[in-house]
Specification:
Length: about 350
């Protein structure tokens, strides 16, 4: 903080940055808390014979946010794994990911860097059916790729390291990029896998559909059970809450530090003005009591000892108010006896 008591640019930047980070964290926390609250309010429906009766009695034959759990069953055809025999599913995702090392000129370290160079997702229509045999009910799952936490299982994963010659190694060190290889991954939603769906449940004539909710709520197709899914969301909410509180306290601490500095600086200025006023009153009293022939010498007297002549110029504030002996006797850090500003350089009025 400068001599005027105003916050410095660095303090303004620190306060502004911490305030922005706190606001962003609070926004994410509110969003996560809303998602967790909506999940808590979702209606859990058993996938059984009475499913259609429950939906037919619901307003509009629809449950806006429902939780249903069942096994995956393909409607017509299935997708076969390209790498694993007898592995069938309804969703297949093939990914090629490039891995390389990149030289960081700031830290002087090699950092891992990955980039997806190709990804393809195949789907076929599928239903959720009860685990029990003999129950003739199914829920058609619509738009599964729009769901959060899509419960795909990694069925194949292989890393193909890059083959480099000596010339390539030298070139990579010069360019600052060193390829490591290509990772090939296949993920599938297998037939028969247990899936928890959270979305809008609709009865359409004789079929039941699970689709993304229309009120902006999250659509889930997770391999976890609903309790685990809810617990994970609540853990995420607690994490963002803690981060928000930490940065909020940091922002309050920075603001308190700035206000405290401003208050102390204001108190110091008031004290200096009071001291200057007292010096002036004391000097005026001495001048009024002194004889006419002594007044000129009193005006030139040191304000500390009032006996020696003023012989020091304080360059920071420009005051000429102290003799050399009194200046040397001032405690460290030395300050002007009049304005109390910290003194770095002093010039004598004359050489002793």
């Amino acid at each position: 903080m400068d001599s005027g008591g105003r916050p410095s640019l660095g303090q303004f930047i620190l306060l502004g940055t911490s305030s922005v980070v706190t606001a962003v964290l609070y926004s994410v926390y509110r969003q996560k808390a809303q998602v967790a609250q909506e999940l808590k309010g979702a209606k859990r429906i058993h996938l059984g014979e009475d499913l259609k009766n429950i939906l037919s009695e619901a307003p509009g034959k629809c449950v806006p946010y429902a939780v249903i759990e069942g096994a995956v069953r393909s409607v017509k055809e299935t997708l076969n794994s390209q790498f694993v025999e007898n592995c069938k599913g309804v969703i297949q995702r093939l990914t090629l990911q490039e891995h390389r090392m990149v030289w960081n000129r700031t830290t002087h370290l090699w950092n891992d860097y990955s980039k997806i160079i190709h990804q393809r997702t195949n789907t076929v229509p599928f239903d959720l059916v009860p685990h029990e045999d003999g129950v003739a009910v199914a829920v058609r799952v619509l738009k599964p790729l729009d769901a959060q936490d899509l419960g795909l299982e990694t069925v194949y994963e292989k890393f193909h390291p890059s083959i480099q010659s000596f010339t390539d190694v030298i070139g990579h060190y010069i360019s600052g990029e060193r390829p490591k290889g290509i990772q090939e991954t296949e993920e599938m939603l297998k037939v028969g896998a247990t899936l928890t769906g959270v979305g809008e449940l609709v009865l359409d004539s004789s079929s039941v559909r699970l689709q993304p909710p229309k009120q902006g709520m999250q659509y889930y197709l997770s391999s976890q059970d609903f309790d685990s899914l809810l617990q994970r969301q609540e853990s995420s909410v607690r994490l963002w809450k803690v981060l928000t509180l930490v940065f909020g306290f940091a922002t309050c601490a920075v603001l308190f530090f700035i206000l405290r500095k401003h208050y102390l600086q204001r108190q110091e200025r008031q004290r200096l003005r009071q001291m200057e006023k007292e010096f002036q009153e004391r000097e005026a009293q001495l001048l009024s009591r002194a004889k006419p022939e002594d007044r000129e010498s009193l005006k030139s007297a040191c304000v500390v000892c009032l006996s020696s002549f003023k012989s020091c110029v304080f360059l920071e504030c420009g005051h000429v108010c102290s003799c050399t002996e009194c200046y040397r006797a001032l405690p460290e850090p030395k300050r002007c006896p009049v304005c109390r500003q910290e003194i770095v350089r002093v010039v004598p009025l004359y050489n002793s």
